[in-house]
Each structure stands twice: as structure tokens, then as C-alpha cells.
Amino acid sequence: MSRLILILGDQLALDISSMRDIDKERDTILMCEVMAEATYVGHHKKKIAFIFSAMRHFADELRTDGYRVRYTRIDDHDNTGSFRAEVKRAVDDLTPSAICVTEAGEWRVRLEMEKWAACFDIHVEIRPDRRFLMSHDEFESWAEGRKALTMEYFYRNVRRMTGLLMNGEEPVGGRWNFDVENRQPAKPDLFRPTHVRFTPDDTTTEVIETIARLFPDNFGTLEHFSFAVRRPDADRVLQEFIAEFLPNFGATQDAMLQDDPYLNHSLLSFYINIGLLDALTVCRAAERAYLDGNAPLNAVEGFVRQIIGWREYMRGIYWLAGPDYVDSNFFENTRPLPSFYWSGKTGMNCLATVITETIDNAYAHHIQRLMITGNFALLAGIDPKAVHRWYLEVYADAYEWVELPNVIGMSQFADGGFLGTKPYAASGNYINRMSDYCTSCRYDPKLRIGENACPFNALYWDFLARNQTKLKSNRRLAKPYATWARMSEETRHEIQKQAENFLANLS
Predict the structure, then answer these.
(1) 172 CA to centre of own chain
(2) What is the torsional sign of CA 285, 291, 293, 296?
(3) Dihedral, CA of residue 40, residue 44, residue 49 and residue 54, to nearest 10
(4) Tens of pLDDT along 128-185?
(5) Cβ contacts of residue 351 below 8 Å, gap of 6+?
(6) pTM as predicted
(7) Under a CB-based contact definition with an 8 Å cutoff, are residues 55 and 9 in contact?
(8) What are the DSSP calls for 301-354, one per residue?
(9) Is 110 helix (H, G, I), strand (E, B) or coil?
(10) How far, in Å, CA of 15 to CA of 107, rounded?
(11) How far, in Å, CA of 419 to CA of 413, rounded?
């Protein structure tokens, strides 16, 4: 009896559950690059190249280890273009007794997989993805009966479960969260370490040439491709982050600098999400740096919280909320995404910088995503589904299970508070405080009204005003609403007129 083991492009882990009991002599691993997955949104060129190159290197790793691998490339003449058709073709050719696959990371593929048994008249085993710390059932049990699904309490639960940064039942340092110490602006530093870059090998070069030929009009550029696409290289990124960047990660993790898109960020999400690195192993390495005295607690706790807190929490929310979560639109926003989200051509330097860096790197760090591109879309009343689609397309670490709740729930508050406790809305003052973008911008972050006023300022107050009925009961917005109420009627009118004029010319 033989089985067909399907491994998806974001399941490149040697201990993935579908391979748990594989028989090297009889079972065949199927991997396929298919046009349906490459085109269901217009992915960044570097994202497609990264995934396909990592897949090909993983297939080579498996063959070297003695596994039987059937691999379909995106430009193979007999490539049928979809998972379903490629699985069907492999079933017809190999006549396996069963199909085994680790569950997909998004609803679209999961619902497709559930049809395969009937379509192919074969037993299909869909196994849980053990790369995550909490199963779907465990997250549902945690969420059941709670008035609010607060990430902080989920995070504490996972800390207890894993023992990370714990002294028995109490957190190391006597506090669960060191966020208050992690909100400092950054300054340019010529002595800051540089992140490791990898020169494309022959396999990656071939992939890049193929992507350039097949997807010439997709977002982004393929120039200066430098991702790790092999497991040893991803591990090197981890080791260099722990040694060089983690000690200074915490204090400035929310900071933004014009000419330093990476600062002290880890750049590990690409490799964790695709399977080249294990999330818990990464956290253990950071914890060890603290225990050995090589990194401060505020840095290590902040980093660990991003992975076992936010990352696990977002996955739990995604599956708990269901496939219709993508249609959430609490504010009933319908404005289309402005064209500068694709070009970076705007007079607002913060947006121009972040979007241009995204075009070049297929990356922006979490505050750039949340408080620049996400904040503007929220204030301007952009359709949240369009915002979601953009984020899914442009970032190389974006998979729907983590991107969708981050955008719909956290960034756009389109779920009305199912995920978060308040909208992440901010004026130009926040951007000026946490970045150096404003110093070379034509707009003044201190002005609300006038030709030179920062658009974020009027948009911020206009956002609060037009959504007051929906947000006035939110306790975390009591202060800004009190400030709005103290303004004169004339001032409020001028601010809203400023926002109205700006939005009327937004395209």
C-alpha cells in the first residue's frame, strides 16, 4: 500500500505532520507550483520567487534524504494549474491507496481539500498542523464563554503552557508585559549591524528569471533578491538576530527611520511562516539569550510575545471567526484603495517611504504596517476588504491566517472589536514622535488646517467625528472624544472641511 503525501508551499518543515509516519520506499511526496495559487491575488514578485525557490530547495533536501518526490514546476508543459488537478494527475499516475496532507493555512484551500475524497474516490487524511502551539479546539475552549478575547490573557496562558520566561507560575521579572519600555524612537546609527543577505544560487536565479517572465506586471521588483531559501541559511538569520539585533530590539521595536527599513527587527517571519524555522525553537533561542545575560528582558519578552502571543492569537481568531470574517465592515467603508498604494507616489513622506520600501523588499515591520499604511486606510475610510487584499499581495510573509485578522480585526477594526479593544487610529503627532519621516515631508505634523497641514491630523479627527455613534461608548477613546467636544464648533467645522477636501481629491 502506498500513499501520496502532499506538501504545500508553506509547509517546508521536515517534521510536518503529513510526513510523521512516511514510508520512504512506498510513499511519494507531491509538491507543486500551480498558477491558481500564484494568481488568486497579485502577489509581490519577490514573494512568489521566495516561495518557489524555497520549495525547490526543500524538494532537493528531501531527495537527498532518500524520499521519493514528485515535483511540478510552474512552467512545466503538463502543469494543470491547480492543486486539485495536480493531485488528480498524481493519483491517476501513481494509484496510491490514500492521500495524506497537513491541514491548509486558509479557508479557501481547506474547503477545497475537504472535497477531494469524493472527487477522487480515495481516502484523504487531513492532519493537524503541529507547528502551532495551540490546536483549533484548544483555542475555542480558551475563547468559550469570555466576554472579550483579549490577546494579553491568551498570551499569559501560552506562557504558562510553554514555560517560556516563567518562574513556576509567575513571569520572570515579575511582569508579563514590558511594552512601556519598548516605545522609544530611534536614531540613525552607522554602527548598527547589517542584516545578512544571501546571493541567489543557480536554483534561485532560475526561479527569478521564470517569475520575471510569467509575472511581469505584478507588484514589486525582483532586484536585489536576498532571502534565505535553505534551512541552514534561515538558521543563520536566526543566530545572527539573537547575537546582533535582539539585545537592542526591544526599546526601538516601534520606531521607524527613513533610511533604515529593518532596524533591529528579526526578519524571521518569512522563515517561520513557510516552515524553515520552528516558532517555539526561535523563542527558546531568545529565552536562552536572556538567561545567559546576552539580551535584556524587555527585548526578549517583546520578541517572544510577537510569536507566541500575537502570531498564535491571530491564527486562533482566523479559524474561530470563520470564512465570512473577510467580509466584516463595521464602519461600512467603501472608498477604493488609493493608487499610491501601488506606486508609492504621494506627498506624504511616511506613506511614500513605507510603500517604496515594500515595493523593493516585500517587507515592512509591524508598526509601519499598522500605524502608517493601515492607519491611513482606516482614517480615510478605505474598504477593509481592499486593504486586506493589498496586504496579502505585497508582503512575502503574508498568509491569510495571519494577515487577515491583523488587517480586518486589528488594523481596520472592521470586526467592531471582536479581536481588539479599540481602533489603531493616530494623528501625525504619533508618526512624528516615532519616526524621522516628518522632517523631510512637505506637510507639517503640527498643523491641522491649511495647505501644509499633515493630512493625518484632520483625517484623525474626522474619523472620530463620523464614527462617533459607533465608538462613543469605547472607554479607550474617552480622552480624544473629550478633546473633540472641547473644540469650538468653528474649529470642528474647519477640521472636517479640511478632511473632506483632502478625501475629495484622493484617487
Answers:
(1) 28
(2) positive
(3) -80
(4) 999 999 999 999 999 999 988 999 999 999 999 999 999 999 999 999 999 888 889 9
(5) 340, 344, 372, 373, 376
(6) 0.96
(7) yes
(8) HHHHIIIIIIIHHHHHHHHHH-GGGGG--TT---BPPPTHHHH---S-HHHHHH
(9) helix
(10) 23
(11) 8
